[in-house]
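Revision sheet: structure tokens.
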Amino acid sequence: MVRNSWYLEGYVGESKRLRRIHLYQFPFLVGRHPDCALILDSTEVSRRHAELDCIENQLLLRDLGSTNGCYVNHQRIEREQGLLAGDVLHFADQEYRLIEQKPTDDNLSDRTSVRSGALPENLPRGARELQLLLLKGAVTAAFQPIVDASDTTFAYEMLGRGALDNLPQAPLALFQIAESLEMEVHLSELFRQKGLEIANTLRPEGRYFFNIHPGELANPERLLRCVQSIRTAFPQLQLVFEMHEAAATNLPLIRRIRDDLQALNIGFAYDDFGAGQARLIELTEVPPDYVKFDIALIRDIDTAPEAKRQMLEMFQRYLLDMGVATLAEGVETESEFHVLRDLGVQYYQGYYFGRPSAQMNS
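Predicted:
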């Protein structure tokens, strides 16, 4: 019987392209040691951090006594745990998604590179179209409301969308194509520029949170020039720069970015806080204006175990004492909202308050 193949999808080493790594033999060892099948160049990762094994077609993850742990769907495992396709795995601060590939699937090489640093043998579907999208500037933006505890709109998160036929609109799918072509920074800059142009037309007095692609941190000079040009072009917009908390590892760089943003009167936020390991050192050393709690902390908080509520309450008190505003992402129900409000969270975002839209609330 021909069995399905397993892959880890994520960012490897210095490359900023999304890759798939074939789990070609078991046990499959992960860590910093040169003998590992997947070598992760991170000081957070142990020399022999974890192994993946397959027993009777059941994939298993084992923590090999690592210092900083293994996580499955943001929950730390004790020793061994069964896995399912689509699970999100963390080896300390390194994140991957688990992919199961059926033998009949023939599109693997079209999407990402497998085990090598070269481009796929065939360019991914949409490569030419993506280059055309960048050339034409064929993108638009959606805006999701961020509200305060009284359900009054405080700000919007600006989200890029594709606007070219034969390409998806969703940013994740577009970034997957862009990363394989090393054009992810160009796409991120285009999303940001076009989105702010639209925001300036629709509501120039508004406040807007905007993201960066992790690849932009590889060239901070370019990133800061880009932010400077945004402030020059849109001096009246109230802006908040979001950085994923997992990217906040280089303290001098993050401090420089934060300080430059302050000089430009642009707010600074850590995004997806708590998605993996909450980076309290970076939070303490380079405090932001806002912290956005990840959806993994927020989802079903009204029915969550008491320990989860206590953890969120601990973060909330800590941030409040630091003078950092808190924002809960992914709020979908009234019950979740009431629990979060009782915990003292100041701002909220999610489908309960509004989906991303080309229009803005009055």
